[in-house]
Amino acid sequence: MNSNTTKQPSKFRRFLRNNAALLLLIFCVLAIAAVVLAVTLTRDNNSVIPDNPVTGNPDDNKPNVKPDDDKPSTPTTEKIDIHFASPLDYTKVGLDFTFGPDHLFVYKQTLNEYSSHKAVDLHAAEGTEVKSMYDGTVIESKLSYLDGYYVVIDHGDNVIATYASLSDVQVNVGDTVKQGDVLGYVSTTARCEFKEGPHLHLEVTADGKKVDPMPYVKGEVYRTVEVEVKK
Ligand SMILES: [Zn+2]
Question: How far is the CA of 194 from the centre of ligand 1 (A)?
Answer without folding.
Answer: 9
